């Protein structure tokens, strides 16, 4: 529960003990403000007895019989002297144009505020309540009720006369009445009744729960939530009643409406007033407590609670204790709660005070968050509601948040928030940077400084760079790499770096940073020198990016010493800028690097560096023998004699064998394989490649007295040379390793060859038979002969013009046709005739005769 104390000008929250702060983290639901101005003047001399509210104005009744009309700020706009004694009730119609007033001396007045219409009546007993019809402004709704010992209904009839009728009596004084639509609810000593003005029937009686309480000291509170929902508060009991239509089958002699209690619960304290707030309730409670000093029960501050009704209980949403003037002397009947529908405004009336309670808006929510130092939540709330908040600005909240973080020492978070809060405001950015400088935290904000849109003054960036340069070389280098070079004066920073290099000339971080600064300043030559000295990986990127090939013509060795692979790729990719001849010349004193370059060049294109192929033979022989043989095989420009000379000098057998064979000296090559390598498999492979019978003969002759070689030949030459030739030459009695296995393999190879031949023969026979059948089917088909065909001999139409005459035609399967008499007689005695035309070209299937007669 929160405690509230009010002043004339504003509302604020503090504990009863002003030395202690309220530590509650729960945000209040309502805000409070004392109604001042004219109200203050009135209550200094008089006391409030009742009040009613309208959207246009307020009407306040006092103990001295005065009625004041007030604006919403509490200023007096009109005053009525109604009676010399207490005003008990004021009633307004919905239009706010007619007012009903009753007082303790029995006077009742109903009059128009803007018209001369007026009703006066004085009763012989105090009149506690008066209620005008909600639509009193209309001529056919000129009705009002009064309550003392009886509930009387006054209706204006013929000749503008007011006719009274008794609605209820006999159950004590009428204590409260509320009129809504066609329903009137009132409370007397026994309970609450509801009357339907259409049927003029009383539809319910809700009895009082606690009959021990005096009804004059603890009066009933009534409030219509809507046209069919009545809220009743009496003692510490709350009931929410719903008026419903009775089904036609249930009516009989009953009213056509009935009331159902939908919610019922009890409160901790006695109720002085009720009002709806959406689906919740606002409850004004009268509180008594035991004094710690005197141990006597005394009046405490009234409470305003917001509760959520449940079927048989309620849930407390918020609870506020209100420090109203003179609360120590007030009774339960002295407090009243009035509300203005649609605006969630609640008026708490006591004899010496009038307090207005409002639902807290987003500005109030932000106020509370700021008070609790929840700046991030306040900033988020302001951003979400920036179109509706009136009191706060997002920027002001953000700046307060940054200051708060700085005060807490959370410098990095404060700097990070600057990006979002300061946005593109350069003045604020520069102000914050200087503030961080004062607390020696420039490093914290450096990462978040804007680099594009907006851009701050160069001095700001230079100030941050100098801060890093004095204490953190790595951080300085990072900023130089990340920040665009146009943010600051490059010359100033270069000079500062040079000054530091005088103290530490070998500092690699400073040298690398200086190279980057030179790059930003387009002094690429100096940057390149530093990168090469440092052997920095970005040197190649720098050359490519800024086309510095003219600057590296004399630095090729340095580049290749640093990274030969990248350097060669770059040089080969840019032959148009640095020629092959220039590179080879530069690398003349570094043959190992020269070889790397020429080797990659050869891999890319076998012909580009052909003038250096002779040189490459020596380079391969010296630095890369594994690639020498592939080079000799792929190159068509290297001199074979020179290559042979070098290989023989270095005793490179494989390379020499290849060169000898390429030069046509296969026998010498074979001899070298046999004598130097002693490798029969390689010799056999070489012989197979050459496919030379004499070479096989030389191989057999060389191997005939070497049993291991004979074994190798027996195992491998079966498919190239007849093994019998080798077997016949083997000397009798010679021991040959694995002879049996070799002979078995020869026999297996022979059987395999036989099987392959038989398989091929079967396939050929099957294919021949298939093709023969296809040809036979083709030749058995008829041949179309019509008027368009001609005799291949006389070139006249093959068919006679007179179809009745007999004729003979010779037709061949090749589609050549002859008249029988035009067909030349064959000189052979063979019964088969062939087409002369096709026979002149070749004799084959399809040229045989097909004779046609008619």
From TrEMBL:
Annotated Basic and acidic residues bias: 1-13
Biological processes annotated in GO: cellular response to starvation; endosomal vesicle fusion; macroautophagy; protein targeting to vacuole
Stretch list, region Disordered: 1-30
Segments of skewed composition (Acidic residues): 14-26
Membrane-topology annotation of the record: Peripheral membrane protein
Main location: cytoplasm
Domain of life assignment: Eukaryota
Pfam family, one: Beta-prop_Vps41
Family annotation (PROSITE patterns): CHCR, ZF_RING_2
Compartment(s): Cytoplasm, Cytosol; Early endosome membrane; Endosome membrane; Late endosome membrane
SUPFAM superfamilies: RING/U-box, WD40 repeat-like
Keyword Protein transport listed: yes
The name this protein goes by in its record: Vacuolar protein sorting-associated protein 41 homolog
Any GO CC annotation of this UniProt entry: late endosome membrane
Keyword Zinc-finger: yes
CDD domains: RING-H2_Vps41
Protein family (similarity comment): Belongs to the VPS41 family.
Coiled coil region boundaries: none
Role, per record: Plays a role in vesicle-mediated protein trafficking to lysosomal compartments including the endocytic membrane transport pathways.
